[in-house]
Amino acid sequence: MIIKPGAHVAIYGFFALVLLTVVSCGESPHAVKVAPKPPPTTSPQQASLPGTPIPTPQVSQLSPVIDQLTQQVLLNIREHGWNASAMDHGQTTGGLYINWKMDDPSQTNALKTGSDGETSGSHDPQVELYYLNALAEYKTLHPQDQSFNGDIQKALPYIRADFANYNVPKGWIYFYLLRDGSLLHDDQLVNEAHLAATNFYTHWYDPNAGLVYNRAHSPGVYNTEHALNCAAALIDAGKRWNEPTWVTAGEEGIDHVISVALDPQTHLFYNNVNVLADGSQQVLNHQAKPSTQGNGVEALLTAYNLTHNQHYLDVAGQVLQSMFSSRLWDDVNGGLFFALDLDTNVLEQSYKETRAQTLSLIALHRYNLLMHQLGQPQIQMEKETKLIDVLSHNFYQSTYHGFFYRMTPTFQVYRSHAGTGIGYEDYFTTEAMGTALDALQQTEFASLSI
Question: Which residue ranges does the record annotate as region Disordered (predicted)?
Answer without folding.
Answer: 30-57
